[in-house]
Amino acid sequence: MAKKKKSAKKSSKTKPLASERIILRTGEALVEGEPAWSAAEPEVIIGELDGPVGFAMANLLGNQAKGHSRVFAILNSDVQVKPATLMVSKVTVKRSKYTNILMGSVQAGIAHGVLDAVRAGDIPKHKANDLGIIVSVWLDPSIVDATDVDYELLLQVNREATAKAIHKAMHCEPTIDWLLENQNKVTHYFHQLAVDGQLG
Protein backbone atom coordinates (compact mmCIF):
# COMPACT_ATOMS: atom_id res chain seq x y z
CA MET A 1 0.00 0.00 0.00
CA ALA A 2 3.01 2.24 -0.29
CA LYS A 3 2.43 5.48 -2.09
CA LYS A 4 4.72 8.08 -3.53
CA LYS A 5 4.28 11.44 -1.90
CA LYS A 6 6.15 14.59 -1.11
CA SER A 7 7.51 14.79 2.40
CA ALA A 8 5.91 17.29 4.70
CA LYS A 9 8.30 20.15 5.26
CA LYS A 10 9.80 19.93 8.70
CA SER A 11 8.31 22.89 10.48
CA SER A 12 8.62 21.94 14.14
CA LYS A 13 11.84 21.98 16.11
CA THR A 14 10.31 21.22 19.49
CA LYS A 15 11.62 18.26 21.45
CA PRO A 16 9.93 16.65 24.41
CA LEU A 17 11.02 18.16 27.69
CA ALA A 18 13.24 15.95 29.83
CA SER A 19 10.56 15.68 32.53
CA GLU A 20 7.55 15.54 30.20
CA ARG A 21 5.36 12.44 30.23
CA ILE A 22 4.83 11.18 26.72
CA ILE A 23 1.31 9.78 26.88
CA LEU A 24 0.74 8.94 23.23
CA ARG A 25 2.38 10.25 20.07
CA THR A 26 1.78 9.05 16.50
CA GLY A 27 3.88 9.16 13.36
CA GLU A 28 4.00 7.79 9.82
CA ALA A 29 6.66 7.78 7.15
CA LEU A 30 7.35 6.44 3.68
CA VAL A 31 10.78 5.51 2.37
CA GLU A 32 11.20 3.78 -0.99
CA GLY A 33 14.08 2.10 -2.70
CA GLU A 34 14.18 1.56 -6.45
CA PRO A 35 12.43 -1.86 -6.60
CA ALA A 36 8.68 -1.74 -5.86
CA TRP A 37 8.99 -4.37 -3.11
CA SER A 38 11.44 -2.27 -1.11
CA ALA A 39 9.02 0.40 0.16
CA ALA A 40 8.63 0.77 3.92
CA GLU A 41 5.69 2.69 5.36
CA PRO A 42 5.60 2.24 9.13
CA GLU A 43 3.02 3.81 11.39
CA VAL A 44 4.12 4.23 14.99
CA ILE A 45 2.55 4.91 18.36
CA ILE A 46 4.85 5.93 21.21
CA GLY A 47 4.01 6.39 24.86
CA GLU A 48 4.71 5.53 28.48
CA LEU A 49 4.64 1.85 29.41
CA ASP A 50 2.40 2.64 32.37
CA GLY A 51 -0.14 4.35 30.11
CA PRO A 52 -2.37 3.41 27.16
CA VAL A 53 0.52 2.44 24.89
CA GLY A 54 1.92 0.00 27.45
CA PHE A 55 -1.52 -1.52 28.00
CA ALA A 56 -2.01 -1.86 24.24
CA MET A 57 1.39 -3.56 23.88
CA ALA A 58 0.59 -6.07 26.62
CA ASN A 59 -2.77 -6.86 25.06
CA LEU A 60 -1.31 -7.25 21.57
CA LEU A 61 1.50 -9.50 22.78
CA GLY A 62 -0.82 -11.66 24.87
CA ASN A 63 -3.58 -11.89 22.28
CA GLN A 64 -1.82 -13.22 19.19
CA ALA A 65 -3.74 -13.44 15.89
CA LYS A 66 -3.01 -15.96 13.14
CA GLY A 67 -1.25 -14.25 10.24
CA HIS A 68 -0.54 -11.13 12.30
CA SER A 69 1.95 -12.28 14.93
CA ARG A 70 3.19 -9.55 17.25
CA VAL A 71 6.90 -9.69 18.05
CA PHE A 72 9.46 -7.42 19.65
CA ALA A 73 12.01 -5.62 17.50
CA ILE A 74 15.40 -7.22 18.12
CA LEU A 75 18.93 -6.76 16.83
CA ASN A 76 19.20 -10.55 16.99
CA SER A 77 17.75 -13.30 19.13
CA ASP A 78 18.45 -12.46 22.77
CA VAL A 79 19.04 -8.73 22.03
CA GLN A 80 15.81 -6.73 22.36
CA VAL A 81 16.04 -2.99 21.70
CA LYS A 82 14.93 -0.18 24.01
CA PRO A 83 12.47 1.41 24.07
CA ALA A 84 10.55 -1.87 23.87
CA THR A 85 9.14 -1.99 20.34
CA LEU A 86 6.33 -4.27 19.20
CA MET A 87 5.96 -5.04 15.49
CA VAL A 88 2.52 -5.74 13.98
CA SER A 89 2.20 -6.71 10.31
CA LYS A 90 -0.30 -4.81 8.15
CA VAL A 91 -0.32 -7.77 5.75
CA THR A 92 -1.73 -11.19 6.62
CA VAL A 93 1.31 -13.46 6.68
CA LYS A 94 0.68 -16.70 4.78
CA ARG A 95 4.01 -17.82 3.35
CA SER A 96 7.25 -18.81 5.05
CA LYS A 97 9.36 -16.63 2.73
CA TYR A 98 7.38 -13.56 3.78
CA THR A 99 7.74 -14.55 7.44
CA ASN A 100 11.49 -15.04 7.10
CA ILE A 101 11.96 -11.60 5.51
CA LEU A 102 9.61 -9.86 7.96
CA MET A 103 11.29 -11.48 10.97
CA GLY A 104 14.76 -11.02 9.48
CA SER A 105 15.81 -7.98 7.46
CA VAL A 106 12.70 -5.93 8.27
CA GLN A 107 12.82 -6.69 12.00
CA ALA A 108 16.53 -5.82 12.12
CA GLY A 109 15.92 -2.59 10.20
CA ILE A 110 13.18 -1.53 12.62
CA ALA A 111 15.37 -2.33 15.61
CA HIS A 112 18.23 -0.22 14.24
CA GLY A 113 15.80 2.59 13.40
CA VAL A 114 14.61 2.72 17.00
CA LEU A 115 18.17 2.98 18.29
CA ASP A 116 18.96 5.60 15.64
CA ALA A 117 16.06 7.67 17.00
CA VAL A 118 17.50 7.45 20.51
CA ARG A 119 20.98 8.37 19.26
CA ALA A 120 19.53 11.36 17.36
CA GLY A 121 17.81 12.60 20.52
CA ASP A 122 14.30 12.16 19.17
CA ILE A 123 13.66 9.73 22.02
CA PRO A 124 15.23 10.91 25.30
CA LYS A 125 17.83 8.31 26.30
CA HIS A 126 16.83 8.49 29.96
CA LYS A 127 13.29 7.41 29.00
CA ALA A 128 14.37 4.32 27.05
CA ASN A 129 13.11 1.99 29.79
CA ASP A 130 9.87 3.91 30.33
CA LEU A 131 8.49 4.15 26.79
CA GLY A 132 6.94 1.62 24.44
CA ILE A 133 6.58 1.75 20.66
CA ILE A 134 4.08 -0.08 18.47
CA VAL A 135 5.11 -0.26 14.80
CA SER A 136 2.54 -1.21 12.19
CA VAL A 137 4.75 -2.70 9.48
CA TRP A 138 4.28 -2.62 5.72
CA LEU A 139 6.20 -5.21 3.70
CA ASP A 140 5.02 -5.46 0.09
CA PRO A 141 3.49 -8.92 -0.51
CA SER A 142 5.06 -8.97 -3.99
CA ILE A 143 8.41 -9.63 -2.32
CA VAL A 144 7.60 -13.36 -2.12
CA ASP A 145 7.73 -13.57 -5.93
CA ALA A 146 10.77 -11.32 -6.37
CA THR A 147 13.97 -12.99 -7.51
CA ASP A 148 16.23 -9.98 -6.98
CA VAL A 149 15.67 -9.21 -3.29
CA ASP A 150 18.43 -7.01 -1.88
CA TYR A 151 18.28 -7.74 1.85
CA GLU A 152 20.71 -4.96 2.77
CA LEU A 153 18.52 -2.45 0.94
CA LEU A 154 15.46 -3.81 2.72
CA LEU A 155 17.14 -3.40 6.09
CA GLN A 156 18.29 0.15 5.31
CA VAL A 157 14.89 1.29 3.98
CA ASN A 158 13.09 -0.02 7.09
CA ARG A 159 15.76 1.48 9.34
CA GLU A 160 15.40 4.91 7.76
CA ALA A 161 11.59 4.77 7.66
CA THR A 162 11.33 3.75 11.32
CA ALA A 163 13.64 6.53 12.50
CA LYS A 164 11.77 9.02 10.31
CA ALA A 165 8.34 7.98 11.66
CA ILE A 166 9.60 8.22 15.24
CA HIS A 167 11.10 11.66 14.56
CA LYS A 168 7.79 12.87 13.17
CA ALA A 169 5.87 11.41 16.13
CA MET A 170 8.12 12.99 18.73
CA HIS A 171 8.14 16.38 16.99
CA CYS A 172 4.38 16.32 16.23
CA GLU A 173 4.95 16.54 12.47
CA PRO A 174 3.36 17.55 10.28
CA THR A 175 2.01 20.39 12.39
CA ILE A 176 -1.62 21.44 12.15
CA ASP A 177 -0.49 24.79 10.71
CA TRP A 178 1.42 23.02 7.92
CA LEU A 179 -1.56 20.76 7.21
CA LEU A 180 -4.02 23.62 6.99
CA GLU A 181 -1.70 25.59 4.73
CA ASN A 182 -0.97 22.65 2.40
CA GLN A 183 -4.22 20.68 2.55
CA ASN A 184 -5.18 21.43 -1.05
CA LYS A 185 -1.63 21.02 -2.37
CA VAL A 186 -1.24 17.39 -1.31
CA THR A 187 -2.83 14.75 -3.53
CA HIS A 188 -3.38 11.21 -2.31
CA TYR A 189 -1.34 8.96 -4.61
CA PHE A 190 -3.89 6.16 -5.03
CA HIS A 191 -6.78 8.60 -5.34
CA GLN A 192 -4.98 10.25 -8.25
CA LEU A 193 -4.33 6.86 -9.86
CA ALA A 194 -8.05 6.14 -9.64
CA VAL A 195 -8.94 9.56 -11.11
CA ASP A 196 -6.48 8.90 -13.96
CA GLY A 197 -7.97 5.45 -14.60
CA GLN A 198 -4.73 3.69 -13.65
CA LEU A 199 -5.98 1.84 -10.58
CA GLY A 200 -6.92 -1.77 -11.32
TrEMBL record:
Keywords: Lyase. It comes from the Bacteria. It holds the Pfam family Fae. GO terms for biological process: carbohydrate biosynthetic process. GO terms for molecular function: carbon-nitrogen lyase activity. Residues 26-190 form the Formaldehyde-activating enzyme domain. This is Formaldehyde-activating enzyme. The lineage of its organism: Bacteria, Pseudomonadati, Planctomycetota, Planctomycetia, Pirellulales.
